[in-house]
Amino acid sequence: MTIDKKTDEQLMRFLKENQPETPEPKPDEERQVLAAIEKRSARKGLFQFPHLWKWAVPGLATAAVLLALFFLQNPVKDSGTKTANNAELEEFLHQTVGAVYEGNGIYSGVGEEWLTLAEQVAY
Amino acid sequence: MQSFSALYREYRGLVRSVLFKISGPADLDDLVQETFVHIWKGYSKFKQSSKLKTWIYRITVNVAVDSYRKNKKRGLEVVLDPERQESHSGANQIVCKDLVQKGLTCLKPSHRAVLVLHCMEDIPLKEVAEILKTSIGTIKSRLFYAKKIMLEFLQKNGVKL
């Protein structure tokens, strides 16, 4: 459907002449509007640094994630466990080096490889 | 606050009229209040690159369209003022006005905004495009569809143009 020029002009005139009448405002509208604005401006005190609020939440979240990742990769070692591990390692090394020494008759490069392996196992 | 009070007095009629035509009578007072709160919040950041009136129209249309969408989501339809319908049902012009208002509710909010601004508020298409932050081509297209639907609605309801 197309609208010819004449109909278009008539429609425009009809709409202009018969546009809905806006109801009158309440007598105290101005007071209410200004009160609402004053209320907002009083509340604004708490949020007077919106840019800080805007960055604080994502910033804190990122810091928390980074901290969690750091502790996942560098777990805090319990000192009791470490002592036990050292004792186990000493025992292990003693037995291993002894075995290598006894087996080969000399304390050679083979023994060093075993030491490295032992350290890896222990830590 | 005094200067804002003057601004309120100057533009309250415009704001109220546009809100009523786009979103209907429901919550009109609340919407007027919301619009002026938005205007007040943005007033300090308002740049003189656009006209104050254009900027106020933009805020008003945004509040009206948002309200319409919210009401639609909540299942509330835009209804005519029942008091007005009952008390003036006899007068021909009132019937026509009610028909136009009903016709407006048949339009999409974006189409309705264009029709209200251009055909009722007499704003040139270029400025309507500026208010709605879109191209003049889009505005012309929206206006065409709005007029077409409005014309069909009016003809269906016995209006002869």
Summarize, please:
In chain A, 75% of the residues lie in helices and 0% in strands.
Please write out the topology.
The complex is a heterodimer of chains A (123) and B (161).
Chain A: H1 5-17, H2 29-43, H3 50-73, H4 79-104, H5 109-122
Chain B: H1 2-23, H2 28-43, H3 52-73, H4 82-87, H5 92-105, H6 109-120, H7 125-131, H8 136-156
Helix pairs in contact in B: 1-2, 1-3, 1-6, 2-3, 3-7, 5-8, 6-8, 7-8
For the structure shown, list the relevant keywords.
heterodimer, A: 123 residues, mainly alpha, 5 helices, 75% helix, B: 161 residues
Write up this protein.
The complex is a heterodimer of chains A (123) and B (161). Helix content of chain A is 75%, strand content 0%. Chain A has 123 residues and is mainly α. In chain A, helix 4 (79-104) packs antiparallel against helix 5 (109-122). Chain B has helices spanning 2-23, 28-43, 52-73, 82-87, 92-105, 109-120, 125-131, 136-156. Chain B has eight helices and no strands. The interface between A and B is large, with 29 and 43 residues.
